[in-house]
Design a protein that fits this description.
By secondary structure, this protein is an all-alpha fold. It is 72% helix and 0% strand. The chain has helices at 14-19, 24-35, 37-62, 69-77, 81-105, 111-125, 131-145, 150-179, 187-212, 214-234, 246-287, 296-309, 321-333, 339-354, 357-370, 396-400. The chain is globular. 34% of the residues are buried.
């Protein structure tokens, strides 16, 4: 990956700064140089503090308007051991299906390696503002240490990301069809389903054209280069070299992968999303909410709506936004007496899906750095087309040292 350099800076040697005449032009230049980092620093502070303030406001002011934390604690404390085991089993199954999905896109790695990659990257993404970029760095360092080439990693990131977007866009459509069998769907779900279906059709058609038409891939690559050129000009950054060849190169490799494993990737991605919803349903039933109080169709609709709402990572792991969206959607259909238990079920769902990857991810990173023999396999890695040159493999220590 090519680093994008920022605008060049002007450095004045100490002696020249003391002896050069301080005319109006030079003074203006020095003032502009000293003032230039301030907007960037301000934006960086806002990007870091903004999500933290938003999450704090949601948990301090918004969620207590539905139910007090004391009532939430009381509802969770009333759970029996079979209910706790049900929630734990659903959460474990949800994590395992995510690892299977990673293996479906990267067939050259084992399930335990996919677990380490997923847990380690999620630990970063769930704890740091804008942690998604850092999580990609962690996953890249781990996969590189096992011999995954740069081209295979980029292909894995793009294909898994595209399929995940497909799943998020398709879930509202599925939820709408299911909810029709139980009750009349709301206007919000109908609008989300229509938007999701339109975007899903457009993206699927675009991907099909990109894979099947070389001329369209060349045209799309040039369009991407123009967009990147404009974006780099506005941000005063240099255009990455070879941007026009990104999409044609992706087309060649993705076509082979999709032709061989599209059904496996689709099934694994669908299972990963649906088992995550089953965790929410298990929490609702574990708290004591029956089918008559919160139908499973309603929980699927709420889950689909919030998944679509959190496509853009405003907060780490959708923290705060997911909780508020689920509580508001489920509480709208529940009775006044059930709002406290709905809030407890949603917070329990987020606790068992958001918190465990943090300590487990820390353990996974420690094992990867200090006991790699526990997860390393024999060097049989191959790319999506069944061949990867031996030069793509790199020493383990070189990439393990990148993550501190």
């Amino acid at each position: 990956m090519t680093a994008i350099a920022g605008p060049p800076s002007v450095t004045v040697p100490p002696q020249e700064a003391l002896t050069a005449p301080q005319g109006p032009g030079r003074g203006a230049m020095q003032r502009s140089e000293t003032a230039r980092p301030r907007p960037e620093s301000g934006r960086r502070i806002f990007r870091t503090a903004g999500p933290v303030v938003l999450v704090a406001a949601i948990f301090v002011f918004a969620i207590p308007r539905f139910a007090s934390y004391r009532s939430v604690q009381s509802s969770m404390g009333a759970m029996t051991w079979p209910q706790v085991l049900l929630v734990a089993a659903a959460a474990a199954a949800s994590m395992a299906t995510t690892w299977v999905m990673i293996c479906s896109v990267l067939p050259s790695i084992r399930l335990r390696q996919a677990a380490v990659v997923n847990l380690g990257s999620n630990a970063v993404a769930n704890t740091l503002p804008a942690g998604g970029a850092l999580a990609m760095g962690v996953s890249w360092a781990m996969l590189s240490s096992w011999g995954i080439s740069t081209a295979d990693y980029v292909l894995y990131t793009l294909v898994s990301g595209i399929w995940n977007v497909f799943a998020r866009l398709g879930l509202p459509v599925l939820a709408l069809l299911v909810l029709v069998t139980a009750t009349r769907p709301g206007a919000g779900l109908i609008a989300a389903a229509v938007v999701g279906l339109a975007l899903l059709a457009a993206l699927a058609a675009g991907l099909a054209l990109l894979i099947r038409s070389e001329s369209f891939a060349v045209w799309a690559g040039r369009a991407l280069q123009r967009i990147l050129t404009t974006a780099c000009r506005l941000t005063r950054r240099e255009l990455p070299p070879g941007a026009a060849g990104w999409l044609p190169g992706f087309r060649d490799r993705a076509g082979a992968l999709i032709a061989m494993r599209s059904w496996r990737i689709t099934a694994a991605t669908a299972a990963s999303n649906l088992t995550l919803w089953l965790v929410l349903l298990a929490c609702l039933r574990g708290i004591g909410l029956s089918q008559a109080q919160v139908p499973w169709q309603t929980s699927l609709a709420a889950f689909a709506f919030v998944r679509l709402l959190t496509v853009l990572p405003v907060t780490p792991g959708g923290l705060g936004i997911t909780e508020l969206g689920l509580i508001a959607t489920l509480a709208a259909g529940a009775g006044h007496r059930d709002v406290a238990r709905v809030t407890a079920a949603v917070l329990l769902y987020r606790a068992v899906t958001y918190l465990p990857p943090i300590p487990l991810g820390a353990i996974a990173c420690l094992v990867w750095r200090h006991a790699p023999g526990l997860i390393r396999t024999s060097p049989h890695n191959t790319g999506p087309a069944g061949h990867r040159p031996a030069s793509a493999a790199v020493p383990d220590s070189r990439y393990r040292n990148r993550v501190t």
